[in-house]
Amino acid sequence: MRAMVTMGHGGLEQMVLHTDWPRPEPAPGEVLIKVAACGLNNTDVNTRSGWYSKTVTDATTGDAFEKVGEDDPTWGGNPITFPRIQGADICGEIVAVGAGVDSAHIGQRVITDGWLRDPNDPENMDKTGYYGSERDGGFAEYATTLAVNALPVKSNLSDAELATFSCSYSTAEGMLTRANVTDRDTVLVPGASGGVGGALVQLAKRRGARVIAMASEVKHPDVAKLGPDRILPRAPENLRAALGEEKVTVVADVVGGPYWPNLIDILERGGRYTCSGAIAGPMVEFDLRTFYLRDLTFTGSTVIDPQVMRNIVKYIETDQIKPALAATYPLEDLRDAQAAFIAKQHTGNIVVIP
């Protein structure tokens, strides 16, 4: 089969197209999916570059870093085995099943849950892996995964549109769940033009919250389509003044970087900050006095509850959320797709078509 294979940590050159890569076979408890489309996410970029290692303190660049720790270059703080086919957000059709899996699943249209859990201990975060990291993923014509991770979906959306949901929307829903967002909240979303940011806008609105999006002004028309109550520039010099009378109770952030203290300073007393990324940089200036004197709560969000992706499928099938598809690229142009993703050339999600 054709597959884009990541050969090691480093720059875009580490992704190599193979036209005769062995097609995987489903093991017991697994299914084989013919990939119709596969979404691209920060996890793919950061895993390839080794950005997750604590030896790296720069913003996400997608380039090779001068030094990447050998012991902690992945989301879970562990080494990764190369060569590796990345890509967690598959939409496709089940074409074969392994032992113990009902053959009635063959022919089902599915999207994938990227979190690979121990079947005997599914809620144990220490026993999780991620698709395209701890096992091969979807930047190929075929891929295998655990049968429980292939979720049937009934929708009139295209394959490319369905491939935008798995990582971005489950990440966003996990963040909002950790922060216990309700219809009593006003949620500030930095980076609202990105995949997770756009999902945060929609899913917070679904919960009844008031949503204030932040994005580059050139992207405001696209962000407006997602339904936020207000849109602010990406980084106002005086955020408090830009907010006016707004009382922000939750900041849902995947950006981080030098602007981070401004986000914390505008949170109301008793407010919550939830985070699942740091694309502008992981190192921030943190005043503990703001944290404890204002009774703030901080939550990190990575490994999500198994129910989250099942909820996302329900929201898709009942038209409660919509895709934010920015662009599609053929598999052989995955390097160009990642370059565009890193440069934030598009608003929304980028999808690769094998």
Automatic annotation (TrEMBL):
The record places domain Enoyl reductase (ER) at 10-352
Which residue windows are transmembrane per the record?
A: none
Key word Cell membrane present: no
UniProt-listed CDD domains: MDR9
Q: Where are the coiled-coil regions?
A: none
Q: Name one GO molecular function term.
A: NADPH binding
Q: Which SMART domains match?
A: PKS_ER
InterPro entries (alphabetical): ADH-like_C, ADH-like_N, ER, GroES-like_sf, NAD(P)-bd_dom_sf
Protein keywords: NADP, Oxidoreductase
**Entry keyword annotation includes DNA damage:** no
Highest taxon in the source lineage: Bacteria
The record's section on PANTHER family has:
QUINONE OXIDOREDUCTASE PIG3, QUINONE OXIDOREDUCTASE PIG3-RELATED
The name on file for this protein is Alcohol dehydrogenase
